[in-house]
Amino acid sequence: MSDRSPREDVAEVLVSEQEIQEVLDDLAQRVTSDYADKNPLVVGVLTGAFVFLADLVRRLDFPLEVDFVAAASYGDGTVAGKLELTKDVNRDPNQRHVLLVDDILDTARTLSTLTELFVERGAASVRACCLLDKPSRRAVDFNADYVGLEIPDLFVVGYGLDYAYGYRNLPFIGVLRAESYRT
Ligand code: XMP
After folding, report:
1. Which domains does the chain have, with CATH numbers?
2. At 139, phi and psi to the nearest 5?
3. 166 C-alpha vs ligand 1 centroid, how far in Å?
4. From the candidates 26, 106, 141, 145, which is the catalytic residue?
């Protein structure tokens, strides 16, 4: 096993630690003005959202509850698969204001399906908050209510985002060197 720093595999830092802090401050302000009196159920989408959610909720100085879902899409690999919950929330979302939190909005299949699910379960409201958005990759007509930053169609890692289960611990968001992808 290599003990090389994951930083050595990064070709370019796309969003620096400093920039992430600024984006978080802005998102936290917007979420606070909409949710301060709503005791929301903040639902992180595992695994990628764990760092973002942890940093976001520590900026929210009002009552809220944190819960998590994990979702996997299954199919034959060529067409978009159906979304399956591999971990569900512990709290009952009925009559709750649900704020879904994810690392990145890509095709939007995950968050649009989760939004429908929580609406069906009787949530009082369902909104989505993403740190990153790749609008050029959309497969379904869905946008998040709170977006930190729009980025181009690049595969990014760090700050919770992985490649092959690695790199989630990088404190910034970056693009890997071509030779770091396993073939
Ligand atoms: P949707 O359903 O919007 O799914 O296509 C979003 C999920 O796709 C993953 N994803 C990425 N993960 N770097 C990653 O590490 C990326 O650039 C990237 N783009 C999409 C991620 O799990 C996200 O929650």
Report:
1. 19-151 (3.40.50.2020)
2. -110, -20
3. 14
4. 106
